[in-house]
Every structure is written in structure tokens, then in C-alpha cells.
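Case study.
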Amino acid sequence: MSTIAFIGLGTMGRGMVNNLLHAGHNVTVWNRSPEQVNQAVTRGATSAATLAEATKDADFVMYCLSDDAAVREVVLASGGLAETVNPDSIVIDLSTIDPETSAEEAEAFAARNVAFLDAPVFGSKGEAAAGGLWVVAGGELETFNRARPVLSAISETTHYMGPSGNGARMKLVGNLLVAAQLEALGESLSLARKAGLSLHDVLGVLKVTDFRSPIFDGVGAAVVAGDYTPSFALNLMLKDGKLVQTFAERLGVSVPGTRATVSTIERAVEAGFGNENASALIKVLASDAGVDLTDETADHSTGLLTADASAR
Ligand code: NAP
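After joint prediction, the assembly is written out as follows.
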């Protein structure tokens, strides 16, 4: 079993820490806001007063932070992890950030001969809590193989994507599709509602067709129930949409669909939905169409919307 320093006890980090503890690892945690630490300590983690204390004896230093600014502050700033971490540790960044920031991290750690992986994750709060994330990692293959036991503790599958930065790149490729699915679902439910279709019937069809998707199932049922409880905050989705755009622009790739989705997200954030779930972008699309997606007056239920579909 390994000694792990884990930094960032947000929505995702909390679930990851629980699963690392469950797998028998010794985990020391540090979080900017100390109130998040107690729950991890109750489950068996050790609390560190400082970053340096958290990382000093760690085999692995893992962090899951909001964005590039947070990674710069915790890792790349003067006195940050890149300068202080024990050179025998393996460092794993699980945050969703710009591949260029990831490259700066790789360079800073390489300068001190510290092994580093960029290893962002797919899945959300539920998958983090259940140890069922999907990890996409970039870095040296040997580092990846040494990190497998700890990555397996938080994930259903772990994917080696190639050299440093490829985990961060894969994450943005995937999140382009997540954003597109949310926008598409919002447009199609608004259209269906305006056309007088029962959204329960619509979701029943979406659940079984050849264009079905767990996102359509889970988010669709939640939207009809009016539930925008955050698992993945809309503010983070805006950050990711902009990262996808910048990444694509650098490579000279046109992403008009992402541009449209980012514009929808910006309007939803301006409307005050930034701390709600990312699916709250759908509220803007419904409002544009002049429909209320929770107002299910017609009942043409085909029986295809099962309890399973309405749970997510
Ligand atoms: P979150 O709940 O907002 O947690 C963010 C964490 O980052 C918190 O621990 C926060 O500390 C810390 N943090 C932010 N700025 C910091 C700073 N300047 N210095 C030190 N710590 C700082 O976010 P999350 O949902 O867990 O997401 C974390 C990362 O995973 C993000 O990159 C996100 O895009 C990615 N991700 C999220 C999901 C999801 O469904 N939620 C799915 C896949 C990937 P405080 O507690 O002090 O604020």
C-alpha cells in the first residue's frame, strides 16, 4: 500500500480520497478551505497543516483542483509543489486544465527529476464517489505503470494516452462531446416541448434508440424533474468550453458547435446559474423557446421511462 498526499477536496477530490482510503492506502489531505478536511479525516485520512507537511513522505502526490489558476498557485508559484515535492514521489494532476499549463508542470517537475502524469478524469460526482471514474493519462509509460494501483482505486478504467500532455488533450476532446450533448439535449427537449410532445415519452424513445446516451438519460430525467443540483458546476463547464476553443484554435481546427455551446453557457452564467449543474445551460434554451421543461401536462407515457432512467 502507498502513502499518498491528496490536495483539493472538492466535489471530485472527496470521492477520490474515500476510494483511496477504501483501497487501503495511507492518505494525507490538504485543502485550501479547512472545513472540507473533517469528512476525510473521519474516514481515516490524516490532515496536514501545510502543503509541505502533506507531501513530505508521500509516494504519490495527487491533486484535483478547479482550474489553471489553482494549479499555478498550488504547483507552479514560488514555493509551490514543483519546488518542494520530494523527488522520489510520483506527482499526478487529475485537474482539467490547458495542455500548455500541463506542459509547464511537466517541465518544472522534470527539472527536479520528479516523475509526473497529467491524468484528468471523465465521470462526475457519482463516479468519483463510487470509484468508477475513467482516467486518461499522459507521461512516461513506466510512470503510468507504477501509478496504476492508485489510479485503479479511483477508476473503472485507466487509459494510457501517450507522452506528457496527452491526458489533458484527451480530456478536452472528450469534453467537447459532453458540451455538445448538453446543448443538443437542451435544443431537442425545447423543440419537443414546443411541439406538444410529452417529454416523458421523448425520454423513453431517447433511452432505447441508436443515438442513446447516458448523458441524455440522466440529465434528461433531471431536467424534467427541475433538478439542477451540481455534480459538475456550470462555471467549470464554461472553463472547459473555453479550454476546448483555445486548444482547437491553436491547432487551426474549427469548432463552431463548441462556440455556440460556450455562448449558451455564458448566457446561463450571466443569468445566475453558474453554481448549478452544467445542465442548467438548458434553462436558457428552454427560455429562448418560451417553454417550461418541467410543465408536463400531457401524459402519453409509453412505459419506456423506467425508474432507472428517472433516477439520474
Ligand atoms: P470543486 O468542487 O470546485 O473543487 C475544486 C477544488 O480546488 C477545491 O478543493 C478548491 O478548494 C480547490 N481550489 C480552487 N482554487 C484553489 C486555489 N487557488 N488554491 C488551492 N486550492 C484551490 O471542483 P470539482 O468539481 O471537484 O472539479 C475539480 C477538477 O476536476 C476541475 O478541474 C474539474 O473541471 C474537473 N472535473 C470535474 C468533474 C465534475 O463532474 N465535477 C468531472 C470531471 C473533471 P476550496 O475547497 O478551498 O475551494
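Observations recorded in class. Strands lie at 3-7, 26-30, 46-47, 60-63, 90-93, 115-118, 121-122, 133-138, 155-162. The domain at 170-289 is CATH 1.10.1040.10 (N-(1-d-carboxylethyl)-l-norvaline Dehydrogenase; domain 2). We will return to this complex in the next lecture.
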